[in-house]
Specification:
One of its GO terms (biological process) is regulation of DNA-templated transcription elongation. This is Transcription elongation factor GreB. Residues 5-75 form the Transcription elongation factor GreA/GreB N-terminal domain. With 160 residues, the protein is of the alpha/beta class. The chain has helices at residues 9-38, 47-72, 125-130; strands at 5-7, 73-75, 92-96, 102-108, 119-121, 138-143, 146-156. Strand 3 and strand 4 (102-108) form a beta hairpin. The longest helix is centred in the N-terminal third of the chain and has 30 residues, at 9-38. The chain is elongated. 21% of the residues are buried.
Length: 160
């Protein structure tokens, strides 16, 4: 990876929790099922065996991905932000577009982004455009729907 994988403490805990769930619970149970199914004879027509091996590959692939993401993670606590007057990682920002439509977004790590909840990834085009902005700043961003201009209306950080 050429850039750090910034992530909030809560986001890192979610990655860790998923890793632990897969590694300590789901994978061992699946290995037991595969061993039981393998002992039943013909493996070529054994659904438990075939599905189990496929699911085991999926889990191992996900565990590898989670492991890489956690190793590359740089945990940043937004509550410790030194400059709360500008938009940086972890900021909750209220923006207004040209039509005076307001949106509230929180800039989080790419692994914890969820647009439906207002969480946008640190490397998303809108987040990149907002970086370093202060209240009242205008920022232009190219989105799939075309170029838009946003004004920063409010900036907040979690209490720390």
């Amino acid at each position: 990876m050429d850039r750090p994988n910034y992530i909030t403490p809560a986001g890192y805990a979610a990655l860790r929790s998923e890793y632990d769930q897969l590694f300590a619970r789901e994978r061992p149970a699946l290995v037991d099922t595969i061993a039981w199914a393998a002992g039943n004879g013909d493996r070529s027509e054994n659904g438990d065996y075939i599905y189990g091996r496929k699911r085991l590959r999926e889990i191992d692939r996900r565990l590898g991905w989670l492991s890489k993401r956690m190793k590359a993670a740089k945990v940043v606590d937004p509550a410790q932000a030194p400059d709360r007057a500008r938009v940086f990682f972890g900021a909750t920002v209220t923006i207004a577009d040209e039509d005076d439509n307001h949106r509230t977004l929180t800039l989080v790590g790419d692994d914890e982004a969820d647009a439906g909840k207002g969480l946008i990834g640190w490397n998303a085009p809108l987040a990149r455009a907002l970086r370093g902005a202060a209240i009242g700043d205008l920022r232009r961003v190219s989105l799939p729907a075309g170029e838009r201009e946003y004004e920063v209306m409010a900036i907040a950080y979690p209490a720390g």
